[in-house]
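Q: Could you fold this chain for me?
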Amino acid sequence: MAALTPGSPGAWIAGARLRTLPAAVGPVLAGGGLAWHDGGFAAAPFLAALVASLLIQTGTNFANDYSDFARGADTADRLGTPRVTQAGLLTAAAVRLGAAVSFALAIAVGSYLVLVGGWPVVWIGVGAIVLAVCYTGGPWPYGYHGLGDLAVFVLFGPVAVAGTYYVQLSRWEPEALLAGFGAGALATAILVVNNLRDMATDAAAGKRTLAVRIGPSATRVQYSLLVVVAIAVPPIGVGAEWWPPGTLLASVAVLLAAAPLRVVWTYEDPRTLNSALAATARTAGAYGLLFAVGCLW
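A: Sure. Below is the predicted structure, expressed as structure tokens.
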């Protein structure tokens, strides 16, 4: 970050927060894998869903950067990687424009998905963008009231997986919703680590995340339970004979979370949680990828 200059391409890349993108990719891969297993994989809708998901996540990151700065939640005391608005790498107007362009491109890609899937896709797309903006923006930012975890779980879990499945097979299936529980659990775990690290600065700024509300001990338990949910979902689906045994590979992927889990429980300096956050994001991406690979068997 120190080598970045204001307004440079690197500043825009930093604002996009690339390390968060596995959370957007994993659920789409899982939904595509299930569609393949059920004989309905369609490359064009799958790729469009993937691109739209990445664009919405990028727009969310820019919108969050802008809104947290505007509300005073991002300061020089922040323990994570510096936010581009707060660090002076991009102006607030530029970051806001970055969010708007990302969402506009997502809508453009989503227009094709609407032609494929109809009104359900409209509601999913509009809902996702509204929730992205209102997470830390708007008159009542729900992320400041402890509801961010629930929104992330639903959007990056059942909605993303089942939605990807739907645009390919034009139907909703409980097996896709179940797969979303695993993907959503790991996406939420990323947010949990972030909020655990930022508890002190969030509380000082009046940002009452769930972590601030329940405290560090309960937040560690929450993270652990989310990891357990992700591990448990594939065996449940295999046991119900919905998915092939190969999807158990996704449970193996969660073993990658052993290291961040240890950090979450033993850290003394909140800054050490940055490594746990990055590792959890990688685990979320690996989970979706290995689940999809397992569906090919």
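A (continued): Residues 210-239 form the longest helix (30 residues).
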